[in-house]
Structure formats: C-alpha cells, structure tokens
C-alpha cells in the first residue's frame, strides 16, 4: 500500500509539473491553454508540489495571487493530513 501511494504521488506530481511546462509554452505561443481548474484539481489530488516546482521553474502562474498563496497552503494541508494519518494509523 505504501508503495502504491508513493508511486501515485510521484506520478501526479510529475504530470502536474510537465503540464505547467506545456501550458507555459502554449501561453507564449498564444495557443489553446490548459485551464487553471485542471491545475487546481491536480494539486488537490496530490500534485501541489509538482505545481509549485513548475511555477518556479517555468515562471508560470506567478502573477496569480491565488496560485502563489493557494498552492503552498495546499502543500501544508497535505503535510498535515499525512502527519495525522501517520500517527492515527500507527
């Protein structure tokens, strides 16, 4: 079970990171974009770290206050849930 969770988290974070790069490239070319709702959904489903690293790496969505404040808050929330589950299930 632990291996599955780690594999899932790695996959969703890499996917979110890659999509941030794709969306940045599309933004520069003024092409059809990936919706912000998609990034929020992926972040809430465990990809917040990938989203944050993508924001910093590609300098993408950094002018959006909702992303600059919200994504770190989601990371903190995920950490708190993980700690709670770790101690409550041990």
Summarize the structure.
This protein is mainly alpha-helical and 90 residues long. The protein has helices spanning 2-29, 36-58, 65-89. Keywords: Membrane, Transmembrane, Transmembrane helix.
Structure report:
With 90 residues, the protein is mainly alpha-helical. The chain has one domain (2-89). The protein contains three helices and no strands. It has helices spanning 2-29, 36-58, 65-89. α1 (2-29) crosses α2 (36-58). The mean pLDDT is 95. It comes from Virgibacillus sediminis.
The string of secondary-structure elements, in order, is: HHH
The total strand number stands at: 0
Q: Characterize the main sheet.
A: none
Strand content: under 5%
The end-to-end distance, rounded to whole angstroms, is: 14 Å
Number of separate helices? 3
Protein name: DUF1294 domain-containing protein
Keywords: Membrane, Transmembrane, Transmembrane helix
Organism: Virgibacillus sediminis
Transmembrane segments: 6-22, 34-55, 67-87
Spell out the blueprint of helices and strands.
Elements lengths: L1 H28 L6 H23 L6 H25 L1
């Amino acid at each position: 079970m632990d291996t599955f969770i780690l594999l899932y988290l790695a996959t969703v974070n890499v996917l979110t990171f890659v999509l941030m790069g794709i969306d940045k490239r599309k933004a520069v070319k003024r092409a059809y974009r990936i919706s912000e709702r998609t990034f929020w959904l992926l972040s809430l489903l465990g990809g917040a770290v990938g989203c944050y690293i993508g924001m910093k790496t590609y300098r993408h969505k950094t002018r959006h206050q909702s992303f600059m404040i919200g994504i770190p808050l989601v990371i903190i929330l995920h950490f708190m849930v993980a700690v709670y589950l770790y101690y409550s299930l041990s």
